[in-house]
């Protein structure tokens, strides 16, 4: 045993000596002597895991020239090879991290400061064919500047990694990654794949450019850029339509083949994963996601993307709950995620989704293996875990032909470990291109136990304990003394201790060396300086404490529920659709039938089927006895900002018609549930009011529990938000920052006029191009598809409808006349607090108005707002509704509508229509919803009282005959959530390691978005919304 | 005896559209009898078909078929709902005209510790907002400086008059403290670590304590004649130590409330808890300690994600059930007019209707120390009366037709009616 120890030490010494000579590459001239050392090595007596699920026992791995030459299953070492005995060890393929920034330059740190601290930068500096947006670095191919970095490599190698796919992690399109070995060699020798995948994220990173400042802006920029790349392939080298040559654009040129190359895209949660999938699939770009460990919460949707994932292993630290009031700040959702995040990999595996692991995001690389083992304890299959370190990342990094397996011809990249790495093994050495990087000696003497020796005729017992640091005592007869100054290496241990041996009383120096399993040879130097040699035998071994700590724990059991969404009040699944018989209700039809007393409703196949008195119950129908109750249609909110992630305003540029609220719907927002509890079933999610022409709106049904896509009401025609007045002219910006056109209501008009004019000229250019002959098209480039202008054309084509944030009469008139100039009808003015002043003009044009019931005085442009506005507009023939623009008001639009009864005597029936049928008409969905009428969707609310009264409370809310809110169920849920939370808190308190893990590992609470919330979601700055500002 | 038809009275409301014709009511010249109304007395239940006699700004009799004094003006209010003063606590009425226009904003003085400022000093009786608040039946408002830790002193004003002096029901009622933050925010705009947050919270708490130590030291030195100069800040807080002034502590989080309970009991302050979103969590303790609570979120979202969707709505009912002495406020300025509806909303979520009314009438009067004057319909109290055609707490009932403040008939016209009436005439 000692001899093989020595051999391996020698091997290490040889390897360490190599690089000085071996670093010469094929093209570097040799200075001094040529290095022709033999690197023919055979690793004998190994367990070789050639790939996940395939193990060879007692085999020999033969390597030469940095590659694997062969695997001898007969365990024979070839002649001439240096033989290393690795018996008792396992060889795994080297691990690959497919998401890294190893070996490339780091970005400058983005300047982050208060919103108004720097002058806004709208355009970037153009240089070297870069893109027009500084968040796009697609022109970078990171192989160009990649270089080995032994210091950084060390932290990867410690965990068993031998190769990485790497790029600078900065911006939206981050450039093309390079896959390279972590070997300490010149760059030329470590490149495994020069042009690997593109990297990307939604975060604009170090870019100081305004656009994009929201998640939807980032998505729109990706969409436009991918479209531009397609266009550029046809256009470059030709003249643009007006005659000037098409610009040189390296970023677009590099993105041309992205459909083949693919992109590794980092997302912050399950929702953004689905968003990224949606936009890239529009262009058939294959995506590998760097995940968040939230994927388990929407497993089916993630599975449906068919994408691979790269998972960080930074599980969140538990929320602090040990103080008696700490739990006041803790949400159930976070406790649930704390419990289940380590099980994410197992969940993905169970759904047969391919994934790899990355060191990325781990604050301490040393947490990698403990966390990976935690994932295994949560049910991750070990072969899957190994695949996540080898074959899967090899595929992602485009190096499956040379790395990720132990096979002839593959690079000699492997890991030698003792024990099972996925439970408690340790990595002894990592081999990179045939060169060993030793982390721990293959073998090491074991001094644990009681070693009895005869020294100078006296029996001495060494009671020793410990592997790295050895401690214990020396016993002679009845007396004993503690070891001091203990020092060890692989084979020997030295220490001093007080002893009285044969009359030599004083401090003795000892050295022990292991000679066999239980035998030791030693030297003792007495107080007199005399040397005594001795032999010792181990009588018993003490338990190895280190291994028991790492022993596999029992399979983790969850105390949390997994709901949709996975937050408090989530549903177990979509509520079932029912056929329903509502009996004996007061039915507010909000339609021509008016209010019907003692009336029954039959609901069949999701629709209102019959409305009448004393109807018979068909078989299989759920009966609701609604005696004393009122039924209304589901409330529809024309103006809502709930359920939106990471920015309600793309507040950067004055026209942002390309951005889509539909891209950032947040199905996890608790305000969806709360609004259901207030009787609201549908909402138009609008872009904010920072720009004259804002983003595209999204109409949703509040199907709590569904995915973002399932909430979208596809039958609603497209719509868009415009805005006028104080917000768009940046009235609350300090004057030194307000450089953006427009700064006046005059400029708002001209800016919109300019936009529509440009759209028409763009169309003319497209039409002219279509008429060109084939030979002319050889020279002339097609007009560049422009999402922004296309959206404006949809408005002019009456395919997209405008909802315009507006207050004062001058701007209302302006927009009416502008729309008339461009031959479209302005669908709805929203807010429209001075609508009463120009109601007849609005009615004549055909515009609707959607107003607040009684808001005013919060800013100058609402100083003439009056609570009789809705009445006056309605009286003049304007289609009028009441909206919320508030996640609180959205829960009680019934009493908001009632205020027109209070202030100006509107009939109750008409008042209810203002929050049901009229908004349905404004959204052009009244053939489906908005009233209780045979054939319409069964979206309805059961109230305990007159629905416009202060005293009314929602009992049940239904959408398409599914019961999404039920007061009784809600009561029951509260109790269940309470006990679930307590169980989770108990689990946290019982876990001594609960506080280990990533800080900020949870989804962050979204602000209550308002029209005027201007926010840079990437720079983390935003303007606080003024109370009541809209 | 003149029998005035109600319609004629109501007509004063809609006569003209000029901006400043809303003239404060004249002092009561003659006895007024409100005949045959439904009286919500607060202290003595609901009395139907009952008369109310107002003499010299006071309620002089309540009863059925009251004898009508010879010079009395008789107003038939049969079928109408008659209420006492409705008192809006925790407002910035008259201090803010247009929130986004800084020049019209007088609510927030510079500095953390500004007990010396008084709400009524900057109060604008001609604010266009005030008549719109009266229109929904609110007769009184507490004018509260906003600000940081110690924000200033509030005053209770009647909402009709020429100057704050003739509107003053009680000036400088007490000192307002915004209790320092507690707990850990996980909002994404919170860039500080939990540790930094805890440190900042503790520092703010220390800052507040030091101010009270100073104020007390000043009070003691003054008692002993040992002051060497005048400090307006500590002068403003003297009343807290001799019990002549109330401490209003704005605190929403359970931990803030508990800290405030301990703090005020150490000093023995006469105090009122304002805001109190988490009061439901410790309702029994609040009742036990007889803490007066002004609940400020009758409309509002739950404070925390996991709370019931209706937690804010249902809190008044929980306080009532626990026996807490509470009022309901709806802090703000233009939106204070929704206070009666907010109280009604609490009824939908379990509060007794009488308790809801009391929470915006008598309870606030008590907390302001003016319940011998206002807050209920009782003989001897101020002739402050609201007449509505229907239920004041319900938007489908409320229609305020008359308001008397100390016997003065209040003009219910307002900017909104003026613009409404103007634009009704636009072709």
Summarize the structure.
The complex is a heterodimer of chains A (1030) and B (427). Chain A is of the alpha/beta class and 1030 residues long. Chain A is built from 27 helices and 46 strands.
Task: Give a structural overview.
Chain A: Residues 1-22 form the signal peptide. Chain A: Pfam families: Amidohydro_1. Chain A: GO terms for molecular function: hydrolase activity, acting on carbon-nitrogen (but not peptide) bonds. Chain A: It comes from Pseudidiomarina atlantica. Chain A: Keywords: Hydrolase, Signal. The complex is a heterodimer of chains A (1030) and B (427). Chain A is α/β, with parallel strands linked by helices. Chain A has a domain at 96-108 and 127-433: TIM Barrel, CATH 3.20.20.140. Chain A contains 27 helices and 46 strands. In chain A, the strands form eight sheets. Chain A has a nine-stranded antiparallel β-sheet, with no helix packed on it. In chain A, helix 5 (215-235) runs parallel beside helix 8, helix 18 crosses helix 20 and helix 18 packs parallel to helix 21 (809-821). The termini of chain A are far apart. Chain B has two domains: 2-84 and 409-424, Urease, subunit C, domain 1 (Roll); 87-373, Metal-dependent hydrolases (TIM Barrel). Chain B is built from 13 helices and 17 strands. In chain B, strands 1, 2, 3, 4, 5, 6, 15, 16 and 17 form a nine-stranded mixed β-sheet that branches. In chain B, strands 7-8-9-10-11-12-13-14 form an eight-stranded mixed β-sheet. The longest helix of chain B has 30 residues, at 194-223. Chain B is globular, with a radius of gyration of 22 Å. Chains A and B meet through helix 10, helix 16, helix 24 and helix 27 of A and helix 10 and helix 13 of B.
